[in-house]
Design a protein that fits this description.
Strand order of the largest sheet: 1-2-3-4-5-7-10
CATH architecture of one domain: 3-Layer(aba) Sandwich
CATH superfamily of one domain: Glycoside hydrolase family 3 C-terminal domain
Strand content: 15-25%
Number of strands: 28
CATH class of one domain: Alpha Beta
Shape: globular
Largest sheet: 7 strands, mixed
Mean pLDDT: 92
Low-confidence stretches: 1-32
CATH topology of one domain: Rossmann fold
Helix content: 10-25%
């Protein structure tokens, strides 16, 4: 018998984020203080704008260094300084991405986006953002280029690890706190990549086609929540084309939807080198970034598309100066809101508190995929421990392209196990495989691994994907910007290694690191325990060790479906990723992720929302009450096991009969609750009409169709414990 010693969840935690709906708007600014502040900002912006020349205005709508856009020194308008950092602020202090010498330049390395999604805890989204915002502020940064809100559509996307989920509702709930946490520290968050950037292969050239219904039900909700609830101050336009037009040039996306329908008041920036011509001046693109990447050695920032050419367009009457004014107004407003013209909060850097946040996220993110009695390991009974796999002793912080972080430290899984076990347990380590491109299984390394696990009291395999093959990111990485995976098969000969290790020691625990699923068909049935550990940040190794030995009860849930094989994913079966003409036709429509697997009865390896615990939970007493089109749902959850643990209660909705085809279930609420052994809690949710509506392409509006609906409550999309029916 063991007892977890770390419980982070507040029993009274109220799902204020989780039960709100993706279509909600921000609270109106009605208090006098807020109105006065807005008036002061407007007055400041009007004053500055009235004093600027055309040339000065245009100087603000394009970059003047790799990571800054221009200011106006004579008017006291500073540059706008940006930084990569979806899960940790990059190392540079100054105006570009060159490392400064002689400064403290190590960051808090947070777990990646998929890990944050796996927590299913919006409170941690907020804490995640607080760390990023505070550390960006400390560095003198104005904009942090995150969060990544792209829907995880295919297992192959090399950048999936930066994103959160395949589900629009979960996306919406996790992002609001993230953005608020960043911006409370006088740093603007940049919601990216707008929109439908779901692969890295030829991302600058592919053309995305999808229905309005898919756009609005699947791909827009995260951005809608970011803007209307999170108050995101910036949005980054994606590289790809959308319906034949580059996102950075799309009046439909930027003006009609983002700035029109969604009411976005902040600035739109391009992804780096995503502006292709001066046509972008005429639409809602406000700041052109990264075009210097295409200029070779002789960079001239005045030769950006939205630089000298924009001045000529105004002077020749092609574009009204008011168009430029509107862009500058948005930039100045963002500057004012983050304190660029007055007092600004002081950030902190790599504090113990920040490290504690990284640890808590890592603790809650780990997903126990399978467990047939091998876990938890009992420390007192283990004198010898075998650890196999190069990922056990590999650091990932310095890899991943835009996600590179120079971590203050990074605890690897092997180091975490040593920290926990100390000298009382003899740990033997065998690398098992080389992290080298194209490396097949290595007979000598496999032989060493087999001998290592044979005589050990317990064995742990740590493998999976990598950000890069060295401490520095490169084009050969599997989880990184600019690359996609060739397939779902483990690299470096790991398939044969795992089979050999399991044959030598059937009780070997399999731990997978990385941002997405792998094909486990060759060995899944033989493995007694499988753990998904993601890229766990600077404290990932400590978190993993505590979970394996029962010091922390696992509570992570999959934020996206793990298919058995690649061909089961809708992006690779009924749709395209992409075709030979670089067309990505989203023929699956709204049937992304579990919506497809559950509706068309395709068996996944592990379902959306799946994650095991060292305890068990019972669901009872489902109550559904209707008040007009408002629906309240409550359920009692009991920890029926012998140890404390946390459960994520998931609420899905099914339309029993619809004019249009709908998924068999759609996530519309969730809550994470901590319960002691034999403790019960009643969890309540409120759903409104948006939870039951669909978007009709023909009518070009959201429709609530009267009829019967089923409310399904469970532990995953495939583990539904209770059902109830209501009529609207």
């Amino acid at each position: 018998m063991y007892q977890p010693v770390k419980n982070y969840f507040c029993k009274s935690f109220i799902a204020v984020f989780t039960t709100s709906l993706i279509t909600c708007s921000c609270t109106p600014e009605h208090e006098s203080g807020t109105n006065n502040m807005a008036s002061d900002v407007d007055a400041k912006v009007d004053s500055l704008l009235s004093q600027m020349t055309l040339e000065e205005k245009v100087g603000m709508i394009h970059a003047n260094t790799p990571f800054t856009s221009g200011g106006v020194e004579r008017l006291g308008i500073p540059e706008l300084i940006m930084s990569d950092g979806p899960h940790g602020v990059r190392h540079e202090h100054g105006r570009d991405w060159v490392k400064d010498e002689g400064v403290y330049d190590s960051s808090t390395y947070l777990p990646v986006g998929t890990a944050l999604g796996a927590t299913w805890n919006p409170e941690l989204g907020y804490k995640f953002g607080q760390v990023l915002g505070s550390e960006a502020n400390f560095r003198g940064k104005d904009v942090i280029l995150g969060p990544g809100l792209n829907i995880i559509r295919s297992p192959l996307n090399g950048r999936n690890f930066e994103y959160i989920t395949e589900d629009p509702y979960l996306n919406s709930r996790m992002v609001v706190g993230y953005i608020k946490g960043v911006q409370e520290n006088d740093v603007a968050a940049s919601a990216k990549h707008y929109i439908a950037n779901t692969l890295e292969y030829d991302r600058e050239y592919v053309n995305v086609e999808m229905s309005d219904r898919a756009l609005r039900e699947i791909y827009l909700p995260g951005f809608k929540a970011a803007v209307q609830e999170g108050g995101a101050l910036t949005v980054m336009a994606a590289y790809n084309k959308f319906r034949g037009v580059y996102c950075a040039h799309s009046g439909f996306l930027l003006d009609e939807i983002l700035k029109g329908e969604l009411g976005f008041k902040g600035l739109v920036m391009s992804d780096w080198a995503a502006v292709k011509s001066a046509d972008a001046v005429s639409v809602g693109m406000d700041v052109e970034m990264g075009t210097d990447l295409l200029q070779g050695e002789n960079v001239d920032y005045n030769k950006f598309h939205m630089a000298d050419t924009a001045i000529s367009m105004v002077k020749n009457g092609i574009v009204a100066e008011s168009v430029i004014d509107e862009k500058v107004r948005r930039i100045l407003t963002v500057m004012a809101k983050i304190g660029k013209f007055g007092e600004r909060k002081k950030g902190e850097y790599n504090t113990k508190e920040h490290q504690a946040v990284a640890r808590r996220i890592a603790d809650e993110a780990i997903v126990l995929l399978k467990n047939e009695g091998a876990l938890p390991l009992l420390q007192e009974g283990i004198k010898t421990l075998a650890v196999v796999g190069a990922n056990a002793d590999h650091r990932h912080a310095g890899a991943g392209g835009s996600s590179q972080v120079k971590a203050y430290y990074e605890v690897t899984p092997l180091a975490g196990l040593k920290n926990l076990l100390g000298d009382k347990t003899q740990i033997s380590y065998a690398r098992g495989y080389e992290i080298v491109k194209g490396e097949p299984d290595n007979a000598e390394l496999i032989k060493e691994a087999i001998e290592t696990v044979k005589g050990a009291d317990a064995a742990i395999y740590v493998g999976g994907w990598v950000h890069g093959y060295t401490d520095q990111w490169n084009d050969n990485a599997y989880d990184a910007e600019v690359v996609d995976k060739p397939d779902m098969m483990l690299p470096f000969g790991q398939e044969e290694l795992i089979k050999a290790v399991l044959k030598a020691n059937p009780n070997t625990v399999i731990v997978l690191v990385g941002g997405g699923p792998i094909d486990m068909r060759g060995w899944k049935s033989e493995a007694k325990s499988i753990v998904q550990a993601w890229y766990g940040g600077m404290e990932g190794g400590n978190a993993l060790a505590d979970m394996l030995f029962g010091k922390v009860n696992p509570s992570g849930k999959l934020p996206f479906t793990f298919p058995e094989k690649l061909e089961d994913s809708p992006a690779h079966s009924v749709a395209q990723y992409p075709d030979e003409n670089l067309l990505i036709d989203h023929k699956e429509g709204i049937f992304v992720g579990y919506r497809y697997f559950d509706t068309y009865e395709v068996e996944p390896a592990f379902a959306f929302g799946h994650g095991l615990s060292y305890t068990t939970f019972e669901y009872s007493d489902l109550q559904i009450a209707k008040d007009g089109n408002q629906v309240s749902v409550s359920v009692t959850v009991t920890n029926s096991g012998e140890v404390a643990g946390a459960e994520v209660i998931q609420v899905y909705v099914k339309d029993q009969e619809s004019r249009l085809e709908r998924p068999v279930k759609e996530l519309k609420g969730f809550d994470k609750v901590m319960l002691d052994s034999e403790e019960s809690s009643t969890i309540s949710f409120r759903l409104n009409e948006d939870s039951f509506s669909y978007y009709d392409d023909e009518q070009r509006k959201w429709v609530l169709e009267p009829g019967k609906f089923t409310v399904l409550v469970g532990s995953s999309s495939r583990d539904i414990r209770l059902k109830g029916t209501l009529e609207l």
